[in-house]
Amino acid sequence: MSTDNPVVKNFIIPLEKYPNLNENQTIHDAVEVLRSFTCGEHDRLRYAALLVLNDQNQLVGAVTLRDLLLVLDTRLKGIRKVKKFEGKESEFPDLTILWEDSFFVECTKRSHVSVKDCMSPIHHTVKAGDPVLKALSIMLSTNDDILPVVENGRVIGVIRLEEIFRELNDRCRI
User: Fold this and answer.
1) Is 167 exposed, middle or buried (0-12, 13-18, 19+ CB in 10 A)?
2) From edge to edge, which strands make up the β-sheet containing 13-14?
3) 23, 103, 119, 152: which could form a disulfide with 61 (CB 3.0–4.6 Å)?
4) What are the mean pLDDT values of the chain's consecutive 10-residue runs (174 residues total)?
5) What domains are defined for the chain?
């Protein structure tokens, strides 16, 4: 194990191995891209977000599973956080929309929506040569679990909190 300070480039997931698509593609395309990155015997999703690029392959945003669900049915945006969920009788009766036929009909109708209409802007990136602890401090202060990694103005991949945790765990011998 090296005593050098670890840098981001040693822990990135390269762009070609991380879900991404063009801003003009649809929600349906985004779901298909995410579903193509599965693992394990139950084909679990490996990633909870994808990067959105423009026609010049420049990073313009990200789409999370939450973003996708919220665009599928606008009623989901009205659901408020509750302290406790006990079913339809509690303060959270709107959750029942998930089981209504209308929800699934609405999902199908909205699958053509462009990802640029539901993506979130990227506020923070790190450079490939930045220290891993810089990436960690940004993630902790912004509550992000991934950060795009840029080199020469182009996104080359992402670094995730999982890789940082693994590195810190190895170095700290927790």
Assistant:
1) middle
2) 13-14, 154-160, 146-151, 126-127
3) 119
4) 76 96 95 92 90 93 91 73 53 57 76 91 94 95 93 92 89 76
5) 8-172 (3.10.580.10)
Given a contact cutoff of 8 angstroms between Cβ atoms, the answer to whether 61 and 52 are in contact is: yes
Give the pLDDT of residue 133.
93
pLDDT at 1: 42
